[in-house]
Amino acid sequence: MKIGILNSDTVEIEGTDEFGQYPEMFFKVFGRVNSKVAFKTYEVQMNNFPDDLHECDAYLITGSKASAYEDIPWINNLKKFIQKLDRNKKKLVGICFGHQVIAEALGGKVRKSPTGWHVGIDTITFNDKAIGYGTKGDQLNLIFSHQDEVETLPAGAEIIAESKICPVGMFLVEDHIMCIQGHIELERKFSQILYKFRKDMIGIEKFNAACDSLAKKTNELQVVANIIKFVET
């Protein structure tokens, strides 16, 4: 299996050299589940896209400091590529910004959350649409770091997991697109550095609660296993 990482950001925060860029973070977490998964990185933030859809078995869009609704050439080109993947029923996974830009590309809507930043570990709960990936009532703890959210789903999309703070926690489009608002690639130490960098934007109360929440157990490996299953089916 070969997954194309559509990298949408560059980490430029002091103190994060040990964690690598987002593609390396994904390499590490997938390697903990299945070391045989291969990757190829495309710097879509620099307008580097695959020449052929079939270069990889599936594609994964990373997080980004950018917003999915911004009128920026590389984001517009990424949306066009997403639409092409969708037309060809190519397997596609979106994480955080990736989750949001897929929704926008396919006719949904993303907005700034009226409740502000969503940071720290939050629990999302599967509903009865999550057949094959979880049982209704099952829960996942994931690390979150976003202020934008999916407000309107694209046609044909179904929510499969949510929380009170994050009503669109995970959604599927038919059987070829999986989108997840929470992060599966972020290590706790990196998350804490990221929250500290954004502390003034997040607000001290949310910042403290987010850092405290990082003591909780998380389920990113379960999500990675589900992504691998999703790609293989």
Please characterize this protein's 3D structure:
By secondary structure, this protein is an alpha/beta fold. The protein has a single domain (2-112, 149-187, 219-232), classed as Class I glutamine amidotransferase (GATase) domain (Rossmann fold, 3-Layer(aba) Sandwich). It contains seven helices and eleven strands. The strands form two sheets. Strands 2-1-3-4-11-10-9-6-7 form a nine-stranded mixed beta sheet, sandwiched between helices. Strands 5-8 form a two-stranded antiparallel ribbon. β10 and β11 (177-180) form a beta hairpin. α2 packs across α3. The longest helix is centred in the middle third of the chain and has 15 residues, at 73-87. The chain is globular, with a radius of gyration of 16 Å.
Going across the biggest sheet, name each strand in turn: 2-1-3-4-11-10-9-6-7
- Shape field: globular
Order of helices and strands: EHEEHEHEEEEEEEHHHH
- Give the low-confidence spans: none
Count of alpha and pi helical runs: 7
By DSSP, the count of extended strands is 11
Percent of residues in β-strands: 25-35%
Please tell me the overall pLDDT: 97
CATH topology: Rossmann fold
Backbone CA Rg: 16 Å
N-to-C terminal Cα separation, in Å? 12 Å
CATH C-level label: Alpha Beta
- The share of residues in helices is 25-40%
The biggest beta sheet is recorded as:
9 strands, mixed
- In CATH, the homologous superfamily goes by the name Class I glutamine amidotransferase (GATase) domain
GO molecular function, one term: transferase activity
Pfam families: GATase
Organism: SAR86 cluster bacterium SAR86E
Keywords: Glutamine amidotransferase, Transferase
